[in-house]
Amino acid sequence: MRPIPIQNLLDSTELSRFGETFSGEEARRLLDFARGSVVAEGGFGYLDPVGNVDRSHPRELYIQCRMIQVFGLAHLAGISEAMELVDLGINALFEVFLDSQNSGFYNSVDYFGKPVDANKLAYGHAFVLLAASTAKACSHPRADELLYIVDEVIEKYFWDSKFNMLNNAWNADFSVCEPYRGVNANMHGVESFIAAYAVTKQSKYRERAFSITKKVVDNFARNNNWMLPEHFDSTWNADMEFNNEKPADPFFPFGVTIGHLFEWSRLAIQVGVQNSDSPTTNSWILPDAINLYDLAKEAGWSADGTDGFIYTMDWDRLPIVRSRMAWVVSEAIMAAYSLWITTNEPKYLEDFNNWWEYAANNMLDYKNGSWFHELNPQQQVIDETWPGKPDIYHMFNSCLLTMYPFTASFVDSIKQSS
């Protein structure tokens, strides 16, 4: 990666051994692993523990888009060969995942090009918008076309102006919208809207990121003692028992998801940065972000007596799924850094160092690459929720966050430093 022309806050002050040099080296290591996801049929596959494509999993829409974002950010950071991988991913979205008959993008496709899941999910389309925004920042020739297509689908089918939130899912031909509404899809909607505003300056993206965050953080979470409900019905009434029979679901777990408390904490701060011209309107953001972070740290870390963050807890703050997920500690790292850079309070830097220390000692796979995606409370590798090492998105972003100026989006951060 090119030299970082900013303060080098952590390296120059020696406040952390997990500063810009460490982050750059780890980012390179993650990218080396992720390059193994390329498949001859187009796009990217789900990676197994040693970095080979696991063909028992279909090609997933969200993985294509996460890889485009990762390789696009790598390109912006000065890794020239990464643009070829951005191109590979963009072509796969057009040629493999785009439903030319009904519009929208299939959720998953097999290696013969047949849709495995033809339903249209807000979660996946949010990642398409993120991928398109990253591609636009990279000046990809088809980025504007992709932005236009996914924006039209989101506008027509997913954005619900009555509630200022995203619907969750439709069937293949957009004739039936499922009644379930979810916070996870809206969270990644916020992430994608922030990035889309950064590259297009269309005000609707900034407004939507703000309105979703305001409702989720300053309404749903605040009104439930920061224990954020994730699952709702079609009129946004919380279903507190949703999936209680399947608590370890990778996308719709029962109860409170610790990693999402951290993720919303960081995203709220980034929404505040993007709306810094309205400080009065933003007065709730930092206190709310701190409350989410504090709960996640207090209830999530070592909740059962051993190091690491649990995956979920119930409404009495008791651990449910005790697995330690790589994505959760990555989000904890990013939330701690975001709060430190915003408040300058040493306790957040101490947390940042502690969370990285834990990851370095337990999560990073120095033999086969990337990070172990799931550990048990004894720090042993398991695959109950996340088999293999499907992608590097959360971990790679946690590296980039410290390497560039802190802004509302990763694309803005890197471009500002070039």
Verbal overview:
- This protein is mostly helical and 418 residues long.
- It has a domain at 59-178.
- Helices cover 49% and strands 6% of the residues.
- The chain has 14 helices and 13 strands.
- It has helices at 9-13, 20-34, 61-76, 82-97, 122-137, 143-158, 183-200, 203-221, 258-274, 285-300, 326-343, 346-363, 393-400, 410-417, and strands at residues 59-60, 108-109, 115-117, 120-121, 159-160, 165-166, 169-170, 181-182, 231-232, 256-257, 312-313, 324-325, 374-375.
- The model is unreliable at 1-6 (pLDDT under 50).
- Approximately how much helix is present in the residues? 40-55%
Note the gap between the termini: 11 Å
Summing up helix and strand content along with how strands pair, one would put the structural category as mainly alpha
Radius of gyration: 20 Å
Counted beta strands: 13
* Overall geometric form: globular
User: Which segments are poorly predicted (pLDDT under 50) over 5 or more consecutive residues?
Assistant: 1-6
Percent range for β-strand residues: 5-15%
The arrangement of helices and strands along the chain is HHEHHEEEHHEEEEHHEEHHEEHHEHH
Q: Trace the largest sheet across and list its strands.
A: 1-2-3
Major sheet description: 3 strands, antiparallel
Q: Report the mean per-residue pLDDT as an integer.
A: 95
The helix tally amounts to 14
